[in-house]
Amino acid sequence: MISTSKHNRPRTATKLTCAALLACMTAGLPACSGDDGASATDTTTDATTTGATDTTDTESTGETPLQPADLVGRWVSAGCESYPDGMGGTNYLTRDFTLTATTWNLKGVIFADPECSTPFFDFEIDGPYTLGALSQTVLTATEGDFGFTTNVWTARLQGAADLFDSSGCGAGSWQVDVPQDVTQTGCIGVAKPIGECPEEYDIVAVVGDDLFFGERITDMCAVAGRPAALNTYPVVRD
């Protein structure tokens, strides 16, 4: 459900990319730092921890792991999501998930304004997933492993295109509104090359019509980085 990098560009643009994705995307976004070296833990809000516990045991809690059928469908942001960027500013984005019993797709948009009216860049990620046992740290959550097949980004402002060019993202020069596949190269330290991170270890929970993924403050490319809390914002069944 995308590592540390510094870039020679206006600070605002960094806030709208690296920190925003780290805080909010669900797939392919491990640790990242901003211009001031703020760590991943500095760039996210407190996670939703409803039902958090030290351990989960099916017999004692009555909970059972989620099944793929529980996730099938489309899940979208309820509105413009905002997250502190760890540098005194705020990031804004929306997420749009489509899940089958075996695959996931995420379309996300990072915006340049608090009304989520001016896209800075967007991305689309595809891959397979599997669900496992109940989380050992978050009651009601289920462990999920989310793999990557493709990761395509599109710059919507020239500042984003310039950033991607200077960071060596994709296979060629970037132009506004022209998508590029960054699966193999990664991008701006937010998307890791698939060779370094073929899948992420996450948690998921469904509460009514709300789907929560894990809090993104660790390197989720490693099993040890599986989140220990849920993200603040859910996506809502469409």
Blueprint (SSEs and pairs):
Elements: H1 11-24, H2 58-61, H3 68-71, E1 73-76, E2 81-84, E3 90-99, E4 103-111, E5 119-134, E6 142-147, E7 150-155, H4 158-166, E8 180-181, E9 199-207, E10 210-213, E11 235-237
Antiparallel strand pairs: 1-3, 1-11, 2-3, 3-4, 4-5, 5-6, 5-7, 6-9, 7-8, 9-10, 10-11
Protein model, in words:
With 238 residues, the protein is α+β, with helices and mostly antiparallel strands. The protein has one domain (11-233). It is 13% helix and 31% strand. The protein contains four helices and eleven strands; from the N terminus they run αααβββββββαββββ. It has helices at 11-24, 58-61, 68-71, 158-166; strands spanning 73-76, 81-84, 90-99, 103-111, 119-134, 142-147, 150-155, 180-181, 199-207, 210-213, 235-237. Strands 1-3-4-5-6-9-10-11 form an eight-stranded antiparallel beta barrel. A hairpin with a 7-residue loop joins β4 (103-111) and β5. It is globular, with a radius of gyration of 17 Å. The two termini are 19 Å apart. The model is unreliable at 2-58 (pLDDT under 50).
In short:
With 238 residues, this protein is an alpha+beta fold. The protein has helices at 11-24, 58-61, 68-71, 158-166, and strands spanning 73-76, 81-84, 90-99, 103-111, 119-134, 142-147, 150-155, 180-181, 199-207, 210-213, 235-237.
